[in-house]
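Subject: Interface between my chains keeps coming out wrong

I've been trying for a while to get a sensible model of this assembly. When I model each chain on its own everything looks fine, but I need the whole thing in one frame so I can look at the contacts. Pasting all components below, labels as-is. Any help appreciated, I'm running out of ideas.
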Amino acid sequence: MEKSLNWREFVITRSIKASGYSAILFVALIFFFLVREGLPTFGEVESTSLLNIRWYPIEDRFGILPLITGSIMVTFGATLIAVPFGIGTAIYISEIAPRWVREILKPLVELLGGLPSVVLGFLGILVLSPFLRVFLDLPTGLTAFTGSLLLGGIAVPTVVSVAEDALDAVPRAYREGAWALGATRWQTIWRVTLPAARSGVITAIMLGIGRAIGETMTVMMVTGNAPVLATALGSLFSPVRTMTATIAAEMGEVASGSTHYHVLFFIGMVLFLISLGVNIAASSVVFRAKKRAERILS
Amino acid sequence: MTLAEHMKRTFSLNRHLVQRLGFTFITLMAIATVLPIVATVLYILIQGASAISLEFLAGFPRDGMRAGGILPAIIGTLYLTIGTAIFSVPLGIAAAIYLSEYAADTPLTRTIRIAIINLAGIPSVVYGLFGLGLFVLFLNFGTSILAASLTLSIMTLPVIISTAEEALRAVPQAFRTVSISLGATRWQTIRRIVLKEALPGILTGVILGLERAAGETAPILFTGAAFFLPQLPGSPFDATMALPYHLFVISTQVPEMPIQIQYGTALVLLVFVLTMNLIATVIRSRARAKRQW
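Reply #2:
Try treating it as a single job with all components included. I did that and got this:
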């Protein structure tokens, strides 16, 4: 009895440990397969033509620059929307709203995070883009701007939840100290609470940007899918195509092992490295802030 | 006195006016954030309601999907969600147990955490590429429910791990100490005390993770989704139709698609996802109300 118990415990503990390590294995596997299928690109396409301004795979033109500028354009617009609204909402939920409002708002924002992106893209096609076409008097409503608006909405829940956590983690004593010194609640928010939560808020912004760069279905459906190099801010109101949308739109039609196939994996590799960079930077901000807090408190 | 100075003076004297203006502004921002969410959901509910009928829910698509029902897409999404749960739930909970109950704060543990954060941040379409490379081609599963479920599982894993770990960590240390001191082994303590107490929190995380998987399109695009199938998939090695992909197809790829069917499909997908969301929210708030520690 005793012995079988030990044996079972040993097996269970081992498999739990193995599961714990699995996350590392998966990240490594993902990277391995992206590299395996994406790296042959360098042998098949000149690196100068890879940085060309034309993406036209049928004629073997694989310039990924317009896709990169497309992604930057749409993400930039989305950030301009998601950051103020996300942080504003986080401040409202954490510092201003009465308890019952908070209990309603938090699940609602979470619900937005759970809305399938294809549903938002669908509404973007049917409702938002016709509206914008008429309202802004554009030749087409399927533009980078339309994508930015929807993408901003998609990134908002990420920004809100991380920023709200950060504001929530600021000790109550900080606020009470400020109030006792005669500061209003408004002054306390801007001069005490928000600066104290700074690292968490920065993380929230970075994770929101990461979410926006990686979004696929919505941008594919509403940005018009034109791989044109964006050179000025005016391109915000013309059709663009992002890196994610290019992979999603074209991977279904290429022969596996072809140059086009390898280039699409190469773009995936670039996206992977971008998200890796964003996430490591975001978590290192938190880590540094934690260390600073420990130093101050000790 | 310049206008700027004047304003500065007025505002510094009327700190309470500034506060009121500021609070109003922030409140309006919050409303502007939340209102579109509510509007979106209501709009689809209203527009889609008239398309819902028994034939729509339980019938096969006809006339190049321009008529008939969406049963294969509903069943397909159900299969994919169950498939994802089979792989991601045990693995995710086990990983959470490891992080909360076993792992010390070593460089290895920190690497695991960074890996989880990164998994959560990888774009969904990159998961699709990975699934295509590993499951569809390398392991030769083909475009199938199996390949798509495995791809979605890995995508869902970080959500399940982080919420489950949070739930496990919320169980007070005293519970473990008492259990161990009564002679229980570590695993007995985890299984009968810690897991039992953390169950509602873990369940919430699992459902929220699966909700995301059910609504995703990009990861299944090249791993398991089919444009149209005349019959239901018969084995895990068959491709399947799925609600999100079907909505994408009928709203962008099929010309002259009746708008009613599009809204109806969006409605069914939304209800599928919202129901999961609602269940998760209810479990969580009930557990919070019942909690004695």
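Reply #3:
Confirming on my end. Residues 199 and 289 of chain A are 6 Å apart (CA to CA).
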